[in-house]
Here is the input.
Amino acid sequence: MSVTLTAAIPVHRVVLVVLMLVAAAWMGGCGQDDAGEAGAAGDETDSGAIDESLDLPEWIAGVHPDPGAEASPTPQVQVIHGEVGVGEGVRLIVNGTDVTAHTVEARPGVLTYDPNRPSALIELSPGQHTATAERVRLDEFGEQHEVLDRFEWEFVVQ
Here is the structure.
């Protein structure tokens, strides 16, 4: 006794599922390719090394560029954070502008703002810049409700 696939599931649904899986795999790979290209360009981000000398809140594992560091002319701004509580989130603010919606999350807990992407909200010209990571409590609609903790740092773009 054999059962044909088309008798159980319409062909158009199978094609749709296959296309969705291919798109998901491609999009997941794109984030990793971008991170790899940035690293190859000399911008060391998300190296996995945690600088113990930084006085970071316990929910932040690392930031890039390091506080006070001189960054390459095309830096990415990154916050590596641990688990946050239920109903909480992390925002990234650069030079007073919330860029969270324009970040790439290549993997959970790593928010990266790349000012060189076409969707970039602000540029990072040479000079001093400020970045802030905020742990926020979200309301029932996923909107920011309350800032629970924040970490601010400065860096210089060459």
Observations:
- The radius of gyration is 20 Å.
- The helical segments are 5-8, 11-40.
- Confidence is low (pLDDT under 50) at residues 2-7, 21-51.
